[in-house]
Amino acid sequence: MIAEAIRQIETELQGKARLVAVTKTKPVNLLREAYDAGCRRFGENKVQEMADKQPQLPADVEWHLIGHLQTNKVKYMAPFVAVIHSVDSLKLLQEIDKQARKHNRVIDCLLQIYIADEETKFGLLPEEAETLLNAPELNDLIHIRIVGLMGLATNTDDQQQVRQEFRGLKQLYDRLSAVQRPNVAFRELSMGMSGDYLIAVEEGSTLVRVGSAIFGARN
Ligand SMILES: *Cc1c(COP(=O)(O)O)cnc(C)c1O
């Protein structure tokens, strides 16, 4: 039951973090079911899929792009995307700024940080994120706002390892929160998925991205 799962997760979050329901690969009727259960934030990992679904849901849905993003795809979501969680380069930020400007918008962005002990995950190293936040070129980008960080923990049963990875990301978040730039204002720490969102909230997450615990396993 989608509504029941959402209610349970909301109860567990205790208002400490907000839920992004991850709807990738799921048909629009299930998104409507989640919407009717009160969900207003949806996360997709592919731009095209998100752009296809967006007009089919009410306008008060916040769309979150959580997957790896290529510069040539930014234009398809620039009119409506609320938060891009997966920014990993200045070049990408420049393209988001350029496309947001065409729609007279300011798009909230999170820097994706590499925290997992895995080869396959995308993201910036902590020192790369710091360099990016101090890049002079950032001054020109008035149509983006960097509002925090995102990270994926290692896919492991070792909860202690997952906790340490989240804790490290929170420490980086706290440190980089001190950066003073016109378009940098940290307030979101996106961490936690179906298997680890409770740990993530204990370690300071403000946005959890939960898919299979709501909608069931993906094929
Ligand atoms: C798919 C995905 C999730 C949700 O994963 P679940 O384990 O189904 O909750 C969260 N974050 C990202 C970046 C994802 O790609």
TrEMBL record:
The record's listing under Pfam families reads: Ala_racemase_N (PF01168)
Could you tell me which residue ranges the Alanine racemase N-terminal domain spans?
2-218
Positions of modified residues (N6-(pyridoxal phosphate)lysine): 24
GO MF: pyridoxal phosphate binding
Return the Gene3D superfamilies for the record.
Alanine racemase (3.20.20.10)
Requisite cofactors: pyridoxal 5'-phosphate
Which keywords are on file for this protein?
A: Pyridoxal phosphate
UniProt entry tagged with the keyword rRNA processing: no
> So which domain of life are we looking at?
Bacteria
Similarity comment: Belongs to the pyridoxal phosphate-binding protein YggS/PROSC family.
> Function of this protein?
Pyridoxal 5'-phosphate (PLP)-binding protein, which is involved in PLP homeostasis.
Q: Which HAMAP family match?
A: PLP_homeostasis (MF_02087)
Recorded protein name is Pyridoxal phosphate homeostasis protein
- Organism (species): Spirosoma taeanense
